[in-house]
Write a structure and sequence with these properties.
Distance between the termini: 34 Å
Radius of gyration: 14 Å
CATH superfamily: Histidine kinase-like ATPase, C-terminal domain
Structural class: alpha+beta
Shape: globular
Helix content: 25-40%
Strand content: 35-45%
CATH class: Alpha Beta
Order of helices and strands: EEHHEEHEE
CATH topology: Heat Shock Protein 90
Strand order of the largest sheet: 1-2-3-4-6-5
Number of helices: 3
Number of domains: 1
Largest sheet: 6 strands, antiparallel
Length: 138
């Protein structure tokens, strides 16, 4: 499912939102990497910045695949504003109380932190979400 939704961001600037849902399987990560690169190019990121985002989305989704419930759907919400691209990757999980997100010292988290400007993870109800934000240089 792909959907483009105009939305107001918290700073009152218009945002384009693309929702992409794929089976929670490594076979579909290429689709998410390609969508990331395409949307990042709209913000005139450099080739290196686009590649960094592709790797960050791939890493975040790989983390989520390990936590996903059986036959889950991996959802990515791409929010494109004038100055940033934010990706919210989310999967349902069977045991939210036992989900262990990567710690700030873990290699996976260090990779994410090096590739994106802001990185956050949360568990809400039966959903696990990792948010990545990359801003355009001023």
């Amino acid at each position: 499912m792909t959907q483009l939704v105009p939305e107001q961001s918290t700073t009152d600037q218009a945002a384009d939102v693309v929702l992409l849902a794929v089976p929670a399987s490594g076979a579909w990560l290429g689709v998410l990497r390609t969508a990331t690169a395409s949307l990042a190019s709209r913000l005139s990121f450099t080739l290196d910045e686009i590649e960094d985002l592709r790797i960050a989305v791939d890493e975040a989704c790989a983390i989520l695949l390990a936590l996903a419930s059986l036959d889950a759907v991996l959802s990515c919400r791409f929010t494109v504003t004038e100055n940033a691209l934010t990706v919210d990757a989310t999967v349902p999980t069977d045991n939210p109380a036992t989900v262990r997100l990567p710690s700030g010292e873990s290699f996976a988290w260090q990779v994410l932190s090096a590739l994106a400007d802001d990185v956050a993870a949360r568990v809400e109800n039966d959903q696990v979400c990792i948010r990545l934000t990359k801003r355009r240089p001023t």
